[in-house]
Write a structure and sequence with these properties.
Elements lengths: L4 H6 L7 E4 L3 E5 L9 E5 L11 H22 L3 E7 L11 E7 L13
Antiparallel strand pairs: 1-2, 2-3, 3-5, 4-5
Amino acid sequence: MDNCIYCKIANKEVPSYILYEDNDIIAVLDIYPPSKGTFLVFPKLHIEDYTILNDVINQKMFTIAKYISFVLKNKLKFDGINILLYSGETQQPTKHNVINVIPRYKGDLSLIHISEP
């Protein structure tokens, strides 16, 4: 898609710090991280709807997110993570499936609050 920032990153039209890349998936550091070490994992192919995402690609995305989280946890010593999946009509400017991994540190302010029912 022409205006998709994620497609532009995957096609090397926009500079990024690549943590992982293969033929299907790319993982990059977030340029506006809510906490140190935040990164994004997404398919190179422009897919907007998570429910139609190929199971193999889905599994690869989460496996890569887990692996990078393990490596970064050893380097950055964070205490936990939040994982968000963006798909379809969300508040992101471009519709593209993206896993956003946000390291959490003891004492940081709550980035995400889920109310109990």
